[in-house]
UniProtKB/TrEMBL annotation, chain A:
<dbReference type="Pfam" id="PF20628">
    <property type="entry name" value="Dyp_perox_C"/>
</dbReference>
<comment type="function">
    <text>Involved in the recovery of exogenous heme iron. Extracts iron from heme while preserving the protoporphyrin ring intact.</text>
</comment>
<keyword id="KW-0732">Signal</keyword>
<dbReference type="InterPro" id="IPR006311">
    <property type="entry name" value="TAT_signal"/>
</dbReference>
<feature type="domain" description="Dyp-type peroxidase C-terminal">
    <location>
        <begin position="237"/>
        <end position="420"/>
    </location>
</feature>
<keyword id="KW-0349">Heme</keyword>
<keyword id="KW-0408">Iron</keyword>
<protein>
    <recommendedName>
        <fullName>Deferrochelatase</fullName>
        <ecNumber>1.11.1.-</ecNumber>
    </recommendedName>
</protein>
<dbReference type="InterPro" id="IPR048328">
    <property type="entry name" value="Dyp_perox_C"/>
</dbReference>
From TrEMBL, chain B:
<comment type="similarity">
    <text>Belongs to the EfeM/EfeO family.</text>
</comment>
<dbReference type="InterPro" id="IPR034981">
    <property type="entry name" value="Imelysin-like_EfeO/Algp7"/>
</dbReference>
<protein>
    <submittedName>
        <fullName>EfeM/EfeO family lipoprotein</fullName>
    </submittedName>
</protein>
<dbReference type="InterPro" id="IPR053377">
    <property type="entry name" value="Iron_uptake_EfeM/EfeO"/>
</dbReference>
<feature type="signal peptide">
    <location>
        <begin position="1"/>
        <end position="28"/>
    </location>
</feature>
<dbReference type="Pfam" id="PF09375">
    <property type="entry name" value="Peptidase_M75"/>
</dbReference>
<dbReference type="InterPro" id="IPR018976">
    <property type="entry name" value="Imelysin-like"/>
</dbReference>
<keyword id="KW-0732">Signal</keyword>
<dbReference type="InterPro" id="IPR038352">
    <property type="entry name" value="Imelysin_sf"/>
</dbReference>
Amino acid sequence: MVEPEPTPAKPGISRRGLLGLAGAGVLGAGAGLAGGIAVDRFALPPSAAASPGAGTVYPFFGEHQAGIVTPAQDRLHFASFDVADITRAELVGLLQDWSAAAALMTAGTPVGTYGAVNGPYTAPPDDTGEALDLPAAGLTITFGFGPTLFTSADGTDRFGLAAQRPSALVELPHFPGDMLTESLTGGDLCIQACSDDPQVAVHAIRNLSRIAFGRASLRWSQLGFGRTSSTTTAQVTPRNLFGFKDGTANIKAEQSDVVADQVWASRDDGASWMHGGSYLVARKIRMTIETWDRTSLKDQEAIVGRTKGEGAPYSGGTEFSEPDFEAKGQGGAPLIAADSHVRLAHPTMNSGAQLLRRGYNFVDGNDELGRLNAGLFFISYQRDPAKQFVPIQMNLAKNDAMNEYLRHVGSGLWAVPPGASSGGWVGETLLG
Amino acid sequence: MKTTPLLAAAGAAVTLLALSGCVPNSSAATDAAGTITVDSSSDDCRVSTTTASSGTLTFSVTNSGDQVTEFYLLADDGLRIVGEVENVGPGISRDLVVQAQPGDYFTVCKPGMVGEGIGRAAFTVSGDKVQLAGDQQEQVDQAATNYVAYIKDQVGQLVTGTDTFLEAYLAGDDETARGLYATTRANYERIEPVAESFGDLDPMIDFREADVAEADEWTGWHRIEKDLFPPTAEENGGTAYVPLTSDERSYYADKLKADTQSLYEAVNADDYTVSIDAISNGAIGLLEEVASGKITGEEEIWSHTDLWDFQANLEGARVAYEGVRDIVEAKDPELVTTIDERFASLEKTLAEYGSLDTGFVYYDELTTDQVKQLADGVSALSEPLSRLTATLVG
């Protein structure tokens, strides 16, 4: 086998270099992806340019926050925060500082006035430095507000926000089989950092939590490798740790009617400050992969309702064929079983409700019994969790044959406000 | 550094293209892995070859028609089924793996799953006889008869044991009831996959609190467990546990008694029988019960009697395994040797913690190292055991 000699690469786009480009408008909104490719095309064979390059930059400012319909990046660092005993003005200050830092980092620039290696010699650097020399790698930073920001567990209205809590920001009910750990649940604020480079995603959370010290502290966080959903039709459907394609029927950015109907909150929904925002559900789902791996191929496929190789629905066709839930097999039994995952999760079984899924595989070492602590860090975006995630998950939790191999251990729901306009900050519509 | 991953990916893509360019499309009847392809279309059943050598044959069946199809390998009488795949949806491929002896066979597809099938063709297997057990039907029938008798015996004991347990519980003799709780459940745990096969019964008899949806009713053994082994407020999510009133005790006792009686009637129905793969899957399923519920202490969260359940699951798995052991041994003696050894090893490890007669160590008294040792034993047995059904019916 002959390994082709790599074409000598032009030095990649530095984080500072990208800022210059972004500032010059070359990588403006909507052109981010194309811009990244154009830059990389000099260095890479044409075939490689078909996928987003490491230099991809997604603008931080815009009508919606990035990181929702943005093509799902490969890596995740998710963090949930508790807000300290601070004033409303201090909370506003935190959100302003976060937005300013996020705008810099998503452009591939270090945070602070001086960055990582400049500034007063006797002071610690503004930026922690591990993302120096790395491109933005498609970094998006998405902020959310949890129910407890509006009303504390003890009913206190700390920031005068209780009246503006959207009705869609519900308390998630107990779902059958839930084994939630308090320390992996809830949070006043959340940040989803996604990138194609894990170090860039970690750098973002690290610097944002540093900025927050004294105002908010990390409650829990999660690293994710390997996206388990596609959010655009251009992406290949990835696989989860059960080895099956996941997210075949996900909402895709190109389905603008569906996105408008199912993902973006509207001022008509009750909370006008959420217009253009969405609601984020996160579930840390442990998979008992050791027992799954001892399950026959026949049972695995029957549980999912799709073939493992192609990902075709059991009723026939190829991956993107619509499942035919009426199709009968031997003995008149449905080809796609009544308790199969694909049937129970399908919009037709859930009054048309859909989710935009954006989950990631995780492996957090192993547990004390020598089993991989592995699973799916499920993230979904929807316009109204009470009408979308809750009924769908209730249906799954009660009936899904897959539950035998799943343990929901972490959970949270956050209102994700609309994007900030240039120079503004996320949360301005609520607190500004 | 930063462009390396992309370059590597680009290199890999080129390499792949080069590879697929170099390897000619096989026009042979079987590919390198010995796979025979079957194209089941709406009007034909095209098999890539009509001859093969004895041993393991893989038929890769692709449904190119527009109806759900089936593929059969039939014996020389054209009736007896040697191997089959069913429920192959349009566009879907599925493999049939069979151990074929030298002889004459027929291949046939059945789009629409009814009628005689189409494209029936002769298929010849030549070569040496493969070492296989002879006619196993008698052994299979005997295994099913024995296992059904075992199920009936266990459920019969469960009915009387549950009565005795509930009498003590209703009389307010909680100490006696606590003593009977785990040993009575053993009759259920030995045949749990059977109860699960009846759909609604297992949830009503054996659901844990966490399994129940908000607003749904929680009944059965674990409801009573919580009442007999009441949690502290801290263990109960921060709220004090309220003991059941005597009326409530009567309600849950009557419900458990009635549901157990339903199970008894179901397994004693005239037409009740079990298939051979249900027996071997029962053995596999019982070990998975241990792996997912008992070894983690999730099953008996209030009484901590998980090791009693573990022992009963293991005994039930042993009985199911022994029922099919000889049939499997003829096909794969090495697998049977491994399973025998690992069963014995796990039984020995568990016996260090007690027995059903004398009682076990409570789960919350086990050290992490002890739990890990037990878990390792479960994994060691479960892995080869998971191949039991495929070997049995293959």
